[in-house]
Design goal:
7-stranded mixed beta sheet; oxidoreductase; ADH-like_C; ER; alpha/beta; 28% strand; 6-stranded parallel beta sheet; Zinc-dependent alcohol dehydrogenase family protein; globular
């Protein structure tokens, strides 16, 4: 038997409950993991509230990110053995797997050995955010040294990952945040500049930073009306990545900006990378290299206990964090 956290109806954090379940032996191409830490992310909140891209099938498991030790392996699994320290890349659907448990099965293609220097808490905080940011900035966007990238919601775990990845390739990460409250934290996190969008003229500030050229890329989980200003701050042939919908209102697009600067506006999801084996392997290589070399460092905001999962979700919904929320077992 294993304790797992599931929900039997959509709703607030209070719908999360601990259930005792029998965990089957790992099937073909599965790895069974004794979980030591879980990373909490926005997709899990959306799934719990019925606002995600798939509908929950009750009782519903959830959990994309985990780190722990291999307990057993299924047939056809190579490269892993019981006792290995591993972490899980979100490369599956909640309809198939969920990692909120003490003992869980995960698909082998989503499991990776993490660098020995990482703790389990750090490893659980690494893969969702770094793969998400890598996919847009590097795999699809081809961000180069000297180019500016605008990072909205920059204090989120993915925003901080984007800052680090931009620095890793010699680009210029410009953090966009609503107020100045998190300015110093973002500078300490590696942002080349921080713009408080409710307090400053965002377009003017970006043009000053880029010597009138504009930013080559924008990476945005928010959306909403302010996207119009973000597009005005892009350079010729700029690319805008929308990877979330914290503000679900339609985004306004100036036809003259679109035509005049030959802009590309693109929806983007992590699964574009994790469901393509070649892209996923490139992501694993890039991120492992960055983790091993110290250019990429998981930023942990706060750690909760397994029995405090509902409180961890409430904290996620408060938007007070700077970095990753982790649940340690």
């Amino acid at each position: 038997m294993s304790r797992v956290i599931r929900f039997h109806r959509t709703g607030g954090p209070e719908v999360l409950q601990i259930d005792e379940v029998d965990v089957p032996a790992p099937g073909p191409n599965e790895v069974q993991i004794r979980v030591k830490a879980l990373g909490i992310n926005r997709a899990e909140v959306m799934y719990r509230t019925g606002q995600y891209v798939i509908e929950p099938n009750f009782p519903a498991m959830l959990g994309y990110e985990a780190a722990g030790t291999v307990s057993a392996i299924g047939s056809d699994v190579v490269g892993f053995a019981p006792g290995d320290a591993v972490s899980v890349v979100p490369a599956f659907s909640f309809a198939e797997y969920g990692l909120y448990g003490e003992l869980v099965n995960a698909p082998a293609h989503a499991v990776v050995k993490h660098p020995e220097a990482l703790s389990f808490v750090e490893a659980a905080a690494a893969w969702m955010k770094f793969v998400t940011a890598y996919g847009a900035l590097i795999e699809l966007g081809g961000l180069q040294a000297g180019e500016a990238v605008l990072i909205r919601a920059a204090s989120s775990s993915v925003g901080l990952a984007a800052i680090q990845i931009a620095n890793m390739v010699g680009a210029i990460p410009v953090a966009l945040t609503r107020t100045s409250d998190k300015r110093e934290a973002l500078i300490q996190a590696g942002a080349a500049a921080v713009i408080a969008t409710q307090e400053q003229d965002m377009v003017a500030e970006i043009m000053a930073i880029t010597h009138g050229q504009g930013a080559r890329m924008a990476f945005d989980p928010v959306g909403g009306p302010d996207v119009a200003l973000v597009l005005k701050a892009l350079s010729m042939h700029g690319i805008f990545f929308q990877y979330g919908a914290l503000d679900s209102r339609d985004i306004p697009v100036s036809v003259m900006d679109l035509l005049g600067k030959h802009l590309t506006l693109r929806g983007y999801q992590l699964f574009e990378i994790t469901q393509n084996q070649e892209k996923l392997e490139r992501a694993k290589h890039f991120i492992n290299e960055g983790l091993a070399g110290g250019q990429l460092r998981p930023v942990i905001d706060r750690t909760f206990g397994f029995d405090e999962m509902a409180e961890a979700h409430r904290y996620m919904e408060s938007n007070a964090q700077v970095g990753k929320i982790v649940v340690a077992l």
